[in-house]
Amino acid sequence: MATKHVTVFDGDDASPEVMVPTVDILRSMELDIEFSYPLIGAAAKTASGALFPSAAKAAIDSADATFFGSTSGDSTAALFYLRWGKQTFANVRPCKWLPGFNSPLASPEGIDFAIVRENLEDLYLGLEGDIEDLAGLNLFSPHARANISDLGPGKYALKAITEAGSERVIRHAFELARQRNGKRKVTVTCKYNMLSVSDGLFLEIGQSIAKEYPDIEFEHFIVDDFLCRMISNPHALDVVVMPNLYGDIMSDGAAGLIGGLGLAPSGCYGADYAYFESAHGTAPDIAGLNIINPTATLLSAVMLLQYLGFAEAASNLERAVKEVYVGGLALTKDQGGSSSTSEFCTAVSTLLRS
Asked: 85-89, 92-96, 151-155, 172-176: which has the minimum mean pLDDT?
């Protein structure tokens, strides 16, 4: 296998406290991976005058994948490039309970599903503005029974669901269901009863693609019904695919089922590129305290290794994380323990060597 190149951004606030030791663990595994650390954000601004300099863009383009720490503010330009510039359209967020996870559920055993969130369209295009700008378009709402200009001052946001965008992310979900080899089921969810044109298109494409995968069970639910089902019977789910906004919200809720966002990894996949990051934010309230849970970042690194073709190493790293929880060895505060971030990562490193 040729040397793999990974671009790393440590992120903001508390994020470097989990990113740095995670990359240290990856280095200790002596894999054929080279890591690069281009500057972005405030540091890049100071050094080059740009928040997202051309050198950082070139580093992303030349890498096989990117490992991205949670970011906010000045570093978001790099994140936007990783999404829209690299067309990473499928945000895969696994929801898998491991023994030792501090779930609020009485019986979380066996929860193992993945949410596939369309990553580039929907309301996240950021097409917003003043309602008065739409007055000349004569847009009549069948629900409000009024022209948009009659609603008075306010703001709007445009939702866009495309055939191509829907087709590729739904197909990704079906292929993932085959790879997981679990329940071999795909669930499509969106608000197709109220948004019968846009979300209706997403459902129609899902129904059409399902015919190409007779080996995969297919079902669909209105998104509010799905939320109830996800809470009441998460064990029945396998791979769930949905438009962008729903996926962002539902995946955070799914993390709550197993014990919180500190346990939630994430990978964003395109046709020929992927980047990996924890699903949680930068946690500015605990920055510098060395207590942030590194599990989400470590499991995102597992996904990174799988993507790069290091299957055995990915399995070993996941096993080490599992054993920390099974043994209750060095759990952080959010999981009922009293250990620091560093102590958790040391425990993982020790188990990897055993």
From this structure: 151-155
What residue segments make up the domains of the chain, in order of their start?
1-98+281-354
Q: Which CB contacts under 8 angstroms, 24+ apart, belong to 58-64?
A: 59/7, 60/7, 60/85, 60/86, 62/5, 63/5, 63/6, 63/7, 63/36, 64/4, 64/5, 64/6, 64/308
**Half-sphere exposure at residue 213, Cβ-oriented, CA atoms within 13 angstroms:** 22
| Confidence (pLDDT) at 221 | 98
Tens digit of each residue's pLDDT (9 = 90 or more) over 301-313: 999 999 999 999 9
Residue 177, CB-side half-sphere exposure with 13 Å CA sphere: 26
Higher pLDDT, 258 or 138: 258
Residue 32 has pLDDT above 70, yes or no: yes
pTM of the model: 0.95
Which pLDDT does position 141 carry in this prediction? Answer: 76
Compare 108 and 71 and report the one with higher pLDDT: 108
Instruction: Please answer whether residues 12 and 72 qualify as being in contact, where contact means their C-beta atoms are separated by less than 8 angstroms.
Output: yes
Closest by CA position to 198, among listed 266, 125, 271: 125
Q: 1-98+281-354 — its CATH code?
A: 3.40.718.10
